[in-house]
Amino acid sequence: MEPKTSKDSEVIMTHLVLPQDANPSGNLHGGVILKHIDTTGGVVAKKHSRTNIVTVSIDRMAFKQPAYMGELLTFKASLNHVGRSSMEIGVRVEAENLMTGEVRHTNSAYLTYVALGKNGKPTPVPPLTLDSEVSERRHMEAELRRDLRQKERALERGDKVCLQKK
Predict the structure, then answer these.
(1) What is residue 149's predicted lDDT score, i.e. its pLDDT?
(2) Assigned fold of 4-164
């Protein structure tokens, strides 16, 4: 399998916030943002793997600032880490006030997807080539998050042996 860079699969998607996306005060519903974050991250995972994918987890979903009806949301997503069949994608959301041009960073999230073969089972994905300082930093940070997720799962299972590692 030929290695790929994160640039090979990164995407930028947009969504205009309409009345059905907002509450009566004009604030965007968090679930609308989550849906678009998952869609954007899923496109990156599919572009990298060129196979069916499923969302495994959403980490570190941060609601930094509100977004409002009438604003344009921009979802920027790129691949941070690749395992055997899993991929971590980071998604940054910005809201643009189309009247003033003001752009605000409203949300960030890290999502993990798994590639599925025709049999519905996890299937290998191409390795990730780290071709810049940014991709190396993102990869290192993703490995730290992966370690934390594994420790959290071990805690949930009560697996004390796994917790003693590292």
Answers:
(1) 86
(2) Thiol Ester Dehydrase; Chain A (3.10.129)
Query: 61 is written with which tokens?
Result: 């979903």
Please, which pLDDT band fits residue 131 given cuts at 50, 70 and 90?
very high
Question: At CB < 8 A and 24+ separation, what contacts does 122-125 make?
Answer: 122/84, 122/85, 122/86, 123/49, 123/51, 123/85, 124/1, 124/84, 124/85, 125/1, 125/48, 125/49, 125/51, 125/82, 125/84, 125/85, 125/86, 125/87
Give bridge partners of residue 7 from the DSSP assignment. Answer: none
- Map out the domains of the chain as residue ranges: 4-164
- The string of pLDDT tens digits covering residues 43-64 is 999 999 999 999 999 987 889 9
Rounded to two decimals, what is the model's pTM?
0.89
